[in-house]
Amino acid sequence: MKLLRCLLLIGCFCLPLITGAASAAAPAQVVLEPAQQQWLEQHRSLRVGLVLQAPFAQFDRRLQQLYGVNVELMNWLGRSLGLDLTWRNFPDQAALEHALLAGEVDLAPGLTQTPASLRLWLFSDPYMRVPQLIVGPRTGAVAVDLEKLASTDRVAVRMPSTVADYLRATYTNLNLQGVPQERQALQLVLSEQARFAVVDEAQLSRLSRESEFSELVVVGDIGLPQLLRVGSRRDWPELAGIVERGLQAVPPKDLEQLHQRWLEPKYPRLSESPGFWQNLGLLLAALLLSCVAIVIWQRRQLHQLEHSLLATRDTLAQRQAREEALRLSQFSIDQSTVGILWVNWDSHVRYANRAAESMLGYASGALIDRPLIDFEPTLHMDRWLDLWKRARTSDEAPQHFETRCLRADGSLLPVDVSLSFLRFRDAEYLVVFLADVTERRRALAALRESEARLKGIAGNVPGLVFRLERNPAEGELEFPYISEGSEALVGYPPAALQHPDMGLRNLVHPDDRAEYHRVQDLALATDSDWSWQGRILTRQGEQRWADIKASTRTLVDGRVVWDGVVWDISQSKRVELELARSQEQLRELSAHLESVREEEKARIAREVHDELGQMLTVLKLETSMCELAYAELDPGLNERLGSMKRLIAQLFQLVRDVATALRPPILDAGIASAIEWQARRFEARTQIPCLVQVLENPPPLSDAKAIGLFRILQEALTNVMRHAQAHTVQISLSLDGQTLRLTVIDDGAGFVLEQSRPCSFGLVGMRERVLMLGGSMTLESEPGEGTSLSVAIPLD
């Protein structure tokens, strides 16, 4: 059988070589045009690029040669055209195209024409069609129409691929499942994870030779074949024409044989067929039956002995298991922390474990045959018989009660008693379970003390203490606890506030209710702490200010709990409002004083400029008259009069500077002109360039706003000159809706805003001016990154 298998394998391997040699023995004659023949004579040596992919092209490392459908095709063309072919193989299409761009490849077979590849190759007409096949199980196989498949029928296909894109666009009803390789697609069909698989014919021919996929057959075609072409260099159009002539000369019969030999699926060989293995199995079964007939008489003799031994071993194992279970049960009962007593109908103890003896203070075995009245003085015979009767006739849960047992030393032990009826070996007992509840009672007492202490503390808190819970299963909120302080705070008793229709929300003032709901709903949605300040209404309608704070925690059972306090902050709120009102009045007073001061500066500037300037003009005129009248009489007098005129000119300049410092006249020309003028003065004084961008037609401003913006700019430039160490300054005046924005940016040293000096009166003064004008100021700065000051003033 092994020899037959070897012969079959050798025949299958050699068949393609023999048929290939036969087909290559007599290639057809290719007729070329004279120009093509002349070009071919000059280019006999051509380099062929192959992408290694079975069954199109493969490399046999043992024989060091290439084989496959594309290799045979190019060999046929080479012989028919008299070409000397040099082979280059590549792992993928990208490596082949890279070699083409590098000038290392002249032509390549087995390519598919795409818009991207047309820029690299000149393609021949298709020489072979590779259909995309639908593969399904052999059992019940029928022709498949993809349009009639249900959405529950899963189709496996390699993704990403052109075939998957075509199926997704053409058959929108398909339930596609992507796999990286065709092998995984066929395996999904075998494992019934997919109904069908879409595989191209070339890959199916390679995989169908494996016995794993012998139960799969072709059940349809998707109608999108892969057309194989020969691609050549775009700079050699003559080569493309020669290849086209050569392909046309290939006999269709040879192409068909090439297709059948390499691309058509090959079904399982003889050794893999079900009939072969069935016959082989029958032969082996006959051999097995003959062997069984030889040894069966020996088994019959040993069967009885084995059966007896197994029965004996099972009996011993069962006995050992029962003894072990009995020992474990006895050990568990003896070592239990719960006292266990077996009591007869006459209330005498039949059995007691170690825990019961330790609880009652008796030595080992001292409880046997003692009546229960020795341990529980109130358990007289009538009561005991009543308990016995109820336990014997009741099918409900065991009786349960608490009592105090008398210990051997005369002390009393609080225990939890549970009774259960038991029948054992034709006898009846009442099993008494004793549990020491000393620690539990101590814990209950401590809990009551803690609750009393909590109520006392909550009752003395000047406010309302509450607990809000939410059940995760139902999602409902409830107040399991509200302190007695609720009546003093809002006039409602705790029971009224705990009602589902009341709660804390109904106490909130209607004007503040929306904000309260927002804060509380956010905390309830995120299971987080929440805090709120606002007004609440008492039962008498009195308005009070309250501060509500609650912290959240999650209990072991999953419930979310908020523990909170409602403080009465009416007094502190009134003080806060009074303080805010006082600050607002101070700011208004400061604004008024600033306005009065600016008006006084303007008046003084006008008087200095008009009155003092007029007097200096008259003085200069008188000096000039004296110079004309008496300068020629005395040369020293002429020099004195010239000195007086220079002093008068300096006084003129001083008067102008004082008037300008008090109130620059340029403000009368508009805020834009004033900003430009101040920037140029800053440049002249500091030699720091200023880039100014202002509105061409700024909106009209009141005198107070114009002066305020100008003073803010002066203070900002003063800070730049003193502290910034800047190289450039940018000043802009822009209009944003109904807001006028002044921005001053420097590229100086900058500073840390949090570390600015608290006594920086320049920034404080600018901020107060902005607040008096009803605007806002933004200051941004980082060390080494400069400083940006932005002031926004509303026009209204």
TrEMBL record:
Pfam families in alphabetical order: HATPase_c (PF02518), HisKA_3 (PF07730), PAS_3 (PF08447), PAS_4 (PF08448), SBP_bac_3 (PF00497)
Single GO molecular function: phosphorelay sensor kinase activity
PAS domain: residues covered: 450-527
Keyword Signal in record: yes
Histidine kinase domain segment(s): 603-796
UniProt cross-references to InterPro entries, sorted A to Z: HATPase_C_sf, HATPase_dom, His_kinase_dom, PAC, PAS, PAS-assoc_C, PAS-like_dom_sf, PAS_4
Keywords attached to this entry: Coiled coil, Kinase, Signal, Transferase, Two-component regulatory system
Leading EC class: transferase
Entry's EC annotation: 2.7.13.3
Any one Gene Ontology cellular component term annotated for this protein: membrane
Residue ranges of domain PAC in the record: 399-449
Taxonomic superkingdom: Bacteria
Signal peptide bounds: 1-24
Sections of the chain in a coiled coil: 572-599
Entries under PANTHER family matching the protein: NITRATE/NITRITE SENSOR PROTEIN NARX-RELATED, OXYGEN SENSOR HISTIDINE KINASE NREB
Protein name in the entry: Sensor histidine kinase LiaS
Species of provenance: Pseudomonas wadenswilerensis
